[in-house]
Amino acid sequence: MRAKQVVRTKEEHVLYLGDWVFHVGPTFIETPFGTETKDADLHFYGERLTEALEQEADVTPLSNWELYRLEPGRLETYLEQSAVLIISDVEAKCFHLYPSFFDRARRENKVVTFPDRLQVIKEWIRGGGGMMMLGGWLSFSGVQNRSGWGRSVLQEALPVGCLSTEDLVESSAGFTAEVVLPEHPVVKGLSWSSFPPIFGYNEVQEQPEGEVIVRVKETGHPLLVAGTYGAGRVLTYMSDPAPHWGINFELWESYTNFWLQAYNWVKRKP
């Protein structure tokens, strides 16, 4: 199953990686000799964010498995066409492997390599690209420290540091936002007094090169941090733009304007 195909109608383009999931089930156990699983559904949790950004740009959403299967050179083509790259709930290792590497019939016993796609992204940012990394169970350090971003070559371009252990901070009571830099273009003029409770975020380490714009009110941890790398800009939002952490966030009256302001601040310079 594949994500939706995008018909380009606008001058600017966003590549949105992540926030897709397969729902499988329910599963029925009616006998000790087997189980029956009925139904499967492919769901894109990033629809609300995509709708917001589509006011100014065409958005190509790719799932983690589509990213994993991208043939060498295809990511570079996407980046060349894009004003902004979004990485949300994606393990770093999804960028490293290409399944056909392991197809002996196609290798013809030749030694093969292809460019490191995270290095490609880092150089794209350095040259003026704009990237947003958004939170989730597979972002930053992630659940059980599986995400691997702190050990990746892209860590150098991030305005925050990743923990060396699991970084999920969650509460059913929710967390709220405290704006530190209200005049920053990403947050200026938004209705922060009505910001709804979020159910979790990734804890990160503050870095000297990162500009903390918003903190988690209850803990003081960074929630929104901006930075630059070379000629490019990077924005990190440590919670989820979609359910489950962001199920209330999607209802915020300033949700659309927040992402449009974030997009316009971070986007690739002409």
From TrEMBL:
<dbReference type="InterPro" id="IPR029062">
    <property type="entry name" value="Class_I_gatase-like"/>
</dbReference>
<dbReference type="InterPro" id="IPR010768">
    <property type="entry name" value="GATase1-like"/>
</dbReference>
<dbReference type="Pfam" id="PF07090">
    <property type="entry name" value="GATase1_like"/>
</dbReference>
<feature type="domain" description="Putative glutamine amidotransferase">
    <location>
        <begin position="47"/>
        <end position="267"/>
    </location>
</feature>
<protein>
    <recommendedName>
        <fullName>Putative glutamine amidotransferase domain-containing protein</fullName>
    </recommendedName>
</protein>
